[in-house]
């Protein structure tokens, strides 16, 4: 028959005993495992039943209904008394001389267990996996909710059983069990450094200063010349770049003066505006035409422009 995932025989061993820690008997080695010491009468009863080996038992505190599992080391205790590890009594919330119910049970072989150390000191051990494998050889089973004790280098390390598969109570005798670790109970994640707002503002100001220090490209800032050496009939307007890097033409001094004179003089409305612009255009065009004609006269080739001489003398 099966109850809560555990197998119970029709003719089961079930008995109540008074429990005491290992300090009451000269067997200190039981503190590093999960095995108890029972009276000889229990062996006689178990031998008459069809008990599966290794012998595993369920321990139950009837007053708190807390449950754990264990194996048996020897049958040399006084009648009506069992001796168990002190850490196991703490898991079951038992005091010296309290009543505990013992029942034989068959547990499935474990395939997975998740452990959580109480302190980070256990992770500081050079090879915690090897130490754990060595310590678990003294254990016959594990129960979810228990805190087992692993002794090493004159120090006791307590580890919680968080999860087990395929059931809450598993046998770890001659089985391959996958072990996973959870962060220790006292583990704290390292705090991330907080950058003050003033430092962020200084970093942004440096980026802006570097961007402004970079030279800006100003296209077409030179002056134009003709290939034939003739003077230009007009002066090119210099080009400057604005703050966005876009080029724009700059008016010459005479044009700007004319513009200021025009703006400072009388206001012209209607057709007078067009007439004034046409007159200025004609005057400018006439001056340019005269300059070109004079330049052509100077450069024009005149044949036989020297003095005349007679061959007769």
Automatic annotation (TrEMBL):
Residues 216-313 are annotated as: Disordered. Signal peptide: none annotated. GO terms for cellular component: VCP-NPL4-UFD1 AAA ATPase complex. Pfam families: UFD1_N1, UFD1_N2. One of its GO terms (molecular function) is polyubiquitin modification-dependent protein binding. Residues 13-108, 109-184 form the Ubiquitin fusion degradation protein UFD1 N-terminal subdomain domain. One of its GO terms (biological process) is ERAD pathway. Residues 240-254 have a biased composition (Polar residues). Residues 276-301 have a biased composition (Basic and acidic residues). It comes from the Eukaryota. Keywords: Ubl conjugation pathway. PANTHER family: UBIQUITIN FUSION DEGRADATON PROTEIN 1, UBIQUITIN RECOGNITION FACTOR IN ER-ASSOCIATED DEGRADATION PROTEIN 1. Belongs to the UFD1 family. This is Ubiquitin fusion degradation protein Ufd1-like. It comes from Arabidopsis suecica (Swedish thale-cress).
């Amino acid at each position: 028959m099966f109850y809560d995932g555990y197998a119970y025989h029709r003719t089961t061993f079930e008995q109540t005993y008074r429990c005491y820690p290992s300090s009451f008997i000269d067997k200190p080695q039981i503190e590093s495992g999960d095995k108890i010491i029972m009276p000889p009468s229990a062996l006689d009863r178990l031998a008459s039943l069809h008990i599966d080996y290794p012998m595993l038992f369920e321990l139950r505190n009837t007053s708190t209904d807390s449950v754990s599992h264990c194996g048996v080391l020897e049958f040399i205790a006084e009648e009506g008394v069992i001796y168990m590890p002190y850490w196991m009594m703490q898991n079951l919330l038992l005091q010296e001389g309290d009543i505990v119910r013992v029942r034989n049970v068959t547990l499935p072989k474990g395939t997975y267990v998740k452990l959580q150390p109480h302190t980070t000191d256990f992770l500081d051990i050079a090879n915690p996996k090897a130490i754990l494998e060595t310590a678990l050889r003294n254990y016959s089973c594990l129960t979810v909710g228990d805190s087992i004790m692993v002794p090493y280098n004159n120090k006791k390390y307590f580890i919680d059983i968080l999860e087990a598969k395929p059931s809450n109570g598993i046998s770890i005798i001659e089985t391959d069990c996958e072990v996973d670790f959870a962060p220790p109970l006292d583990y704290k994640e390292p705090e991330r450094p907080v950058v003050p707002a003033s430092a962020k503002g200084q970093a942004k100001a440096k980026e802006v200063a570097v961007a402004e220090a970079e030279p800006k490209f100003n296209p077409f800032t030179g002056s134009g010349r003709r290939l034939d050496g003739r003077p230009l009939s007009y002066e090119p307007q210099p080009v400057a770049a604005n703050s966005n890097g876009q080029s724009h033409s700059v008016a010459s001094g005479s044009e700007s003066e004319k513009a200021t004179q025009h703006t400072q003089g009388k206001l012209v409305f209607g057709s007078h505006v067009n007439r004034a612009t046409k007159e200025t255009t004609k005057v400018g065009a006439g001056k340019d035409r005269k300059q070109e004609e004079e330049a052509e006269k100077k450069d024009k080739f005149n044949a036989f422009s020297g003095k005349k001489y007679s061959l007769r003398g």
